[in-house]
Amino acid sequence: MSDRLPAPGGLALVEALVNTVDLESGRDALDTAEGRTPFGIGERDLAQARELRESLRAACLAHAGHPPHRAVTPLGDLLARAPLYVAVDARDGSARLTPVEEGPLLSRVAGAVAQALTEGTWQRLKACELPDCHWAYYDRSPAGRGRWCSMAVCGARAKMRRYRAKGA
Ligand SMILES: [Zn+2]
What we know:
It holds the Pfam family zf-CGNR. This is CGNR zinc finger domain-containing protein. The chain is mainly α. It has a domain at about 10-80 and about 120-165. The chain has helices spanning about 10-20, 35, 45-65, 75-80, 105-120, 150-165, and strands at about 85-90, 95-100, 125, 135-140. The two termini are about 30 Å apart. Zinc ion binds near residues 128, 135, 149 and 150. Zinc ion binds near residues 135, 148 and 149.
């Protein structure tokens, strides 16, 4: 749905997870084993993964100044279940927030959010403002005011709607 480059660093995982479902058609890549593979989850993890996905989408919408698309578990509540610690590299003294438990999807997402915080990229992971899209994208615009996953697709659709609304 988007011709943009993937989000930088660990945010690519978060972006990919949010974009596993096409809200318009309801097609969900997590329904297939192939679609679940990149996230290292099985069928029994589906409910949790979907809950996490929609909480992340709500955070992406919030980054663009939009209210949540539906009632979701606050992302902070979910991430609180995946504690992080400060890992320090003894050789060069560099430090980073690392999940206590490396494996689970929730931990990897928590680690990715922490990394994005230190890199200043978290706020730029947004969700498209069109309700039947809400696709996640990384806003690379200089001012950070991007509104659509794709100017050519959703930007054009939004303009068409405004045009029609005016004509009516
Ligand atoms: Zn869109």
